[in-house]
């Protein structure tokens, strides 16, 4: 698949942008049941699949939009070093969140951070009236089977979330969000700290545009021993 609220400052998203984003996501994934058998439905699905694979489509995503590389280049080495203190620290800072989102885009796993951010925004809902449409959009976009940006959840978590979606509470996505958070913290975050783009920021180097690459497995520290970093990647 195809570029914050724990203990630190939250990511602010305006109400108007919230509405436009959820409207856009809703229109993208909504499909009337009685249209499933009509001619052209398969073609529409294929076009949606192709659209989701286009880099420019992900670049314009509201929740996952990381900004431009110039902003990341302005991060001081001291600030970048702090991102290595904890995953919470990385996500609590806008520049850190941007840089991590860019990194996930190179691994084609940005749906994880987008889902986490969508849940953070969901928990900022001020009235119960806001919960149902937001909950439905998040569920259809990230959780239901064959969702456009389906995240990797265990069967139990997915089932519990599915059952609670009809009468959503502010805590409806907590279990699913924590699962995805731990996945990123234990898997993607360590690789981000070992990546050339992050090491360049720590050393005060100016990164260039990242090269998209698929990963076939998780790396360990031993994989990088004796290997000289390639500073031309960014």
Structure, described:
With 234 residues, the protein is mainly alpha-helical. The chain has a domain at 77-203: Orthogonal Bundle (Regulator of G-protein Signalling 4, domain 2). It is built from twelve helices and no strands. Helix 8 (111-122) crosses helix 11. The longest helix has 21 residues, at 174-194. The protein is elongated. The two termini are 22 Å apart. 29% of the residues are buried. Mean pLDDT is 74; it is low at 1-17, 31-39, 44-70, 208-212, 214-224 and 229-234.
Radius of gyration: 19 Å
Number of strands: 0
Strand content: under 5%
Structural class assignment:
mainly alpha
Quote the CATH topology of the domain at 77-203: Regulator of G-protein Signalling 4, domain 2
Q: Describe the sheet with the most strands.
A: none
Give the rounded overall mean pLDDT. 74
Distance between the termini: 22 Å
Query: How would you spell out the order of helices and strands?
Result: HHHHHHHHHHHH
CATH class of the domain at 77-203: Mainly Alpha
Poorly predicted spans: 1-17, 31-39, 44-70, 208-212, 214-224, 229-234
What is the count of DSSP helices, taking H or I runs of 4+ residues?
Answer: 12
Key phrases:
disordered N terminus, 12 helices, disordered C terminus, mainly alpha, 234 residues, Regulator of G-protein Signalling 4, domain 2
């Amino acid at each position: 698949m195809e570029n914050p609220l724990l203990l630190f400052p939250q990511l602010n998203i305006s109400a108007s942008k919230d509405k436009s984003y959820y409207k856009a996501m809703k229109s993208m994934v909504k499909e009337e049941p009685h249209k499933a058998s009509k001619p052209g439905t398969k073609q529409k699905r294929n076009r949606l699949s192709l659209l989701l694979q286009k880099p420019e489509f992900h670049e314009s995503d509201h929740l996952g939009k990381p900004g431009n590389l110039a902003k990341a280049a302005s991060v001081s080495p001291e600030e970048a070093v702090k991102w290595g203190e904890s995953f919470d620290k990385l996500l609590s800072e806008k520049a850190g969140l941007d840089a991590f989102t860019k990194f996930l885009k190179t691994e084609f796993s940005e749906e994880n951070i987008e889902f986490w951010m969508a849940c953070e925004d969901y928990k900022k809902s001020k009235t119960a009236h806001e919960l149902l449409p937001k909950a439905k959009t998040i569920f259809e976009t990230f959780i239901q089977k064959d969702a456009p940006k389906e995240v990797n959840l265990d069967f139990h978590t997915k089932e519990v979330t599915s059952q609670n979606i009809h009468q959503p509470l502010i805590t409806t996505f907590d279990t699913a969000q924590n699962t995805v958070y731990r996945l990123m913290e234990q898997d993607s975050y360590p690789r981000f700290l070992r990546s050339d783009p992050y090491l360049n920021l720590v050393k005060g180097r100016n990164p260039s545009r990242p090269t998209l690459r698929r990963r076939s497995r998780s790396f360990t520290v031993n994989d990088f021993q004796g290997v000289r970093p390639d500073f031309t990647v960014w």
